[in-house]
Amino acid sequence: ATLEQKINNSETFVVYIYGKNCSYCKAFAPTIEGYLEQNKFQINKIASDDSPNIKTLIGDTYQGTPSIYVFKEGVISDYMIGQKTEKELSAFVTKNSSVFETHRIK
Length: 106
Description:
The protein has about 110 residues and is of the alpha+beta class. The chain has five helices and four strands.
């Protein structure tokens, strides 16, 4: 399902938004990819380049890439913007563990 469909269906999910030519995204990639793999999370990933309506869907909280958004029942409940350390990423995941747990690979 697309981001728009997930929002319209009032789904609970996590989405990672990155830019294909974003230097911060490239620098953050090993951190987020390693963390997700190590903790067995599979989240939605969207390239902002391929989603011209991303600003409309995310709204005022969208400030560029890399960014991670947590949706509860189709509404943004939390977000993290920018290149972060693994410790910062881990704290964000812990804070939103109920949603991240729905993305854990069994």
